[in-house]
Design a protein that fits this description.
With 666 residues, the protein is of the alpha+beta class. Helix 25 links the parallel strand 20 and strand 21. Bound molecules: 2-(butylsulfanyl)adenosine. It is an enzyme of class 6 (ligase).
Length: 666
């Protein structure tokens, strides 16, 4: 078999396994076998760039290249649907349609998926474009991101699809993925996504398609558009589309009477809780495309369809108390403590109040009857107060606390931020414990055998005060403690010792500097050889690093301005942690561009701009944004702007082309 044949065979096979797994939910091979085949294909494609294919299954892993989305006009505008919460209005819709058509008709009932809408264009059986709704007339081209969504076919099955068509649907983040993502974000003290819809649309707009790939989005398609569709029925067309490889909901049903429609609504209002993705209503569509055409559109929405929205689930209960939680970076979160109340199948006792402004906006008083909603959110929230229930004995007004509930320090609020912080980073107990918990977590130092309870015990017993103390612990110190046998004690000590192998970028992340998440930590590890360089970096140097803006830079400066943090880092260094890049991290790195400030300008042919930026950094140089007297040279591609050219020649700065640059670093 030639390489070309093998590549084609693997592509076909992987497309099929993707479909089995993500659309049909019936995998035929193990994840391992799948990964092996994918790797084989990746290797072959790399060895044979001449057989490149934009719709290869390997395109689903995404790329790190930043992208600004281009706007694309929709061929058919993306309209919205008329909405109602009332069954009477559903009946009105039905009667209107009946009167206007004056003929038999079917209504296709389907779920209203609560995600972010997408329009996919296929030509000759291949996905060629994916565009967001935007303003309905034009949207963002998010094709690269959408290609990472495994349930969207890149290449269609069979051969009876129209040569060119659009299919529209909803991109969704399944509940379990959403919950896991928020758990991770909570651990990193990153802002949580309020609901799967926000998480899906935020993810889809990500500038980095490998982030999208990692977020495991799903997609249901519900609207086929084009000239030569196979059938006159909307329902029948979608059944065909299912055969081409699209994920089509199997909750669709054709109804012939109003009664059947209400039965459908009633059934799915409860049954939807068992679906893997969020829904917020039912969509009713006249099934025949001919009849749809007869009914036509108003300016905003089709006359042949309507959305019936489910009531958001809401409960009324009493507010007993507001307590405050202090997170690892000192963020103080107000929590409403409520009379227990049943809401969407769970008992709710606590709800987030987010921040001081929200409390103020609600004019909250202790003893108030408050509305709690769950909607698409996992964390219930208070959405209002029933002021009519306030008696003459109105309770005390809720005022946000001024001092930390844990250590008594005066709270601070930074300009432009909604949150209050406890500034006592090094001595406030939940911050200390939180920092240690973050430090040992899987994505940071990954120390096995240690969890929040053990950390809490060690802290209470005075065994550890900070992360560096972990490296002083011996098995003798901890064995015999509560539920700590010899074996677990040894496991913990071994785990701690092994963490000394964790690479620089993860150690930086583990330090728990506010706003320094994994991505930023990676950029830092790339930009600085060791922790000393980072400690000495000034604002200008920090903001010149990709992904680091003023806010993050300032937070890094604040961290190292604190003497106890410097001391801690020193102790971690003495303990043998990798607070520097190792040979392995450094492979391919040189000092050839050390001390040089380089401006990149124009369009390149050999490598992308980002790749040149990486190359500069790998060879010790610094990529800077604008030309100044300090600029060492300009790496220029085609079409460098005239203003830049003029400035460069005025300052006598050398302009180097791609070939010269590559020669320089080779
Ligand atoms: S049909 C012209 N079907 O709801 C009608 N829309 O306000 C095209 N949606 O933007 C839409 N589930 O994002 C249709 N089964 C479904 C849907 C659905 C969710 C969303 C879609 C649209 C919005 C309408």
């Amino acid at each position: 078999m030639t390489a070309k044949e093998k590549i084609e065979e693997l592509r076909a096979e992987l497309h099929r396994h993707n479909y089995n797994y993500y659309v049909l939910n019936t995998p035929e091979i193990s994840d391992k076998e799948f990964d092996d085949k994918m790797r084989e294909l990746q290797d072959l494609e790399q060895a044979h760039p001449e057989y490149k294919d934009d719709n290869s299954p390997t395109m689903r892993v995404g790329s790190d290249l930043n992208k600004n989305f281009t706007q694309v006009a929709h061929k058919y505008p993306m309209l919205s649907l008329g909405n109602t919460y009332s069954e009477t209005e559903v009946a009105d819709f039905y009667e209107r349609v009946k009167k206007a058509l004056n003929d038999d008709f079917e209504i296709c009932c389907e779920m209203k998926y609560d995600g972010t809408s997408i329009s996919l264009t296929y030509e000759d059986g291949k996905l060629i474009r994916a565009v967001t709704r935007g303003d309905g007339e034009k949207g963002d081209d998010v094709t690269d991101n959408v290609k990472t969504i495994r349930s969207i076919p890149l290449v269609l099955h069979g051969d009876n699809y129209p040569q060119s068509f659009e299919i529209r649907g909803e991109i969704l983040m399944p509940w379990d993925v959403f919950e896991e993502l928020n758990r991770e974000r909570e651990a990193r003290e990153e802002p949580l996504f309020a609901n799967p819809r926000n998480a899906a649309s935020g993810t889809l707009k990500s500038q980095n398609s490998s982030v999208v790939a990692s977020r495991k989005l799903d997609a249901y398609l519900y609207y086929l558009l084009g000239e030569n569709l196979p059938c006159d029925g909307h329902y029948e067309n979608l059944q065909e589309a299912a055969k081409w490889g699209f994920k089509i909901s199997n909750a669709m049903q054709k109804c012939h009477t109003l009664e059947e429609i209400f039965d459908y609504i009633k059934y799915w209002d409860t049954e939807r809780k068992n679906l893997t993705v969020a829904t917020d209503g039912i969509v009713l569509k006249v099934n025949s495309l001919k009849q749809q055409k007869n009914l036509g559109f108003t300016a905003k929405s089709p006359r042949w369809a309507i959305a019936y929205k489910f009531q958001a689930e809401r409960a009324l209960t009493r507010l007993n108390m507001v307590t405050y939680q202090v997170g690892r970076t000192g963020t103080v979160t107000p929590v409403a403590n409520l009379d227990p109340v049943q809401l969407s199948g769970t008992i709710v006792k606590r709800a987030s109040l987010h921040n001081a402004d929200i409390i103020e906006g609600l004019d909250l008083h202790i003893g108030d009857m408050v509305y709690v909603e769950k909607g698409g959110e996992i964390i219930p929230k208070i959405t209002g107060v029933d002021t009519s229930a306030r008696s003459f004995m109105i309770g005390e007004k809720v005022n946000f606390i001024t001092n930390c509930p844990e250590c008594g320090s005066k709270l601070v609020r930074y300009e432009g931020e909604a949150a209050h912080y406890c500034p006592n980073e090094t001595a406030c107990p939940p911050q200390i414990k939180g920092k240690i918990e973050h430090f040992i977590s899987r994505r940071a130092m990954n120390i096995d055998g240690l969890g929040p309870e053990t950390i809490d015990m060690f802290y209470r017993l005075g065994l550890i005060q900070n992360t560096a103390d972990l490296y002083k612990l011996t098995a003798e110190d901890i064995k015999g403690l509560d539920r700590m046998g010899e074996k677990s004690a040894e496991n913990i000590i071994n785990g701690i010792a092994q963490s000394k192998e964790i690479p620089f970028e993860r150690v930086i992340f583990a330090l728990g500097i506010r706003f320094v998440g994994e991505t930023v930590a990676k950029k830092i590890a790339k930009a600085f050889k060791n922790i000393e360089e980072l400690e000495d970096a000034d604002l200008e140097t920090l903001v010149s690093i990709d992904e680091i803006g003023e806010k993050i830079a300032q937070s890094i400066l604040n961290y190292f301005a604190n003497e106890s943090n410097r001391e801690l880092v020193n102790r971690l260094k003495e303990a043998g942690l990798q607070l520097y890049r190792t040979e392995e991290d450094l492979s391919g790195h040189t000092d050839k561009l050390a001390g040089q400030s380089i401006v990149i300008s124009g369009v390149f042919t050999h490598y992308s701009r980002d790749e040149y930026k990486d190359l500069i950094e790998k060879h010790g140089g610094k990529n800077v944004g604008s030309i100044s007297a300090k600029t060492s040279f300009i790496l220029a591609g085609e079409n460098m702007g005239p203003a830049k050219l003029e400035k460069a020649s005025k300052l006598g700065i050398r302009i180097m082309n791609e070939e010269e640059f590559l020669e320089l670093i080779s």
